[in-house]
Structure prediction request, 165 residues.
Amino acid sequence: MAQPFDIRPFQPADLPAMQEIRRLAFEPVFQSFRDIVGEEIGKRAFADADAEQSQLLETLCGTGSVHQVFVATIGDEVVGFVTYSLDEKKQIGEIGLNAMHPEHAGQGIGAAMYEFVLERMKSAGMKVATVGTGGDPSHAPARRAYEKVGFGPSIPSVYLYRLLF
Prediction:
């Protein structure tokens, strides 16, 4: 049975825990990418993936960011986070970088974070919500979580790689 959890606004002191969650959640994703494209391409195309994503999270949480950031907590422990942005002109909300600690994945907390954000988008007058994710096997749990809260239809996107030597 899942433990009771809360969803609250991000606080700067949460960032180290969020970075660790991000690292743990995306480490298998980045490895999957390297496995798919092979060693030669992977070591070039994804060499800085973790550092780039770490910087992205810092930017999303930084002063002056237009992104909203929330964390899921069990007691005092941050176990997940979600970011989102609003385009008021187009009335579109977009879920951005988000992750669950692997030890707490599959308990419905991620879906609850998405539902929370979707309600906030709706309250802000958004008419459409979007989220982007990978189509590779490592993103299957994310796709299931998004579909669980009603996302779909999807437009597939493909990245192709080629060695040049």
The beta strands are 6-9, 68-74, 77-87, 92-100, 128-131. The radius of gyration is 16 Å. Residues 36 and 68 are 33 Å apart (CA to CA). The chain has a mean pLDDT of 95.
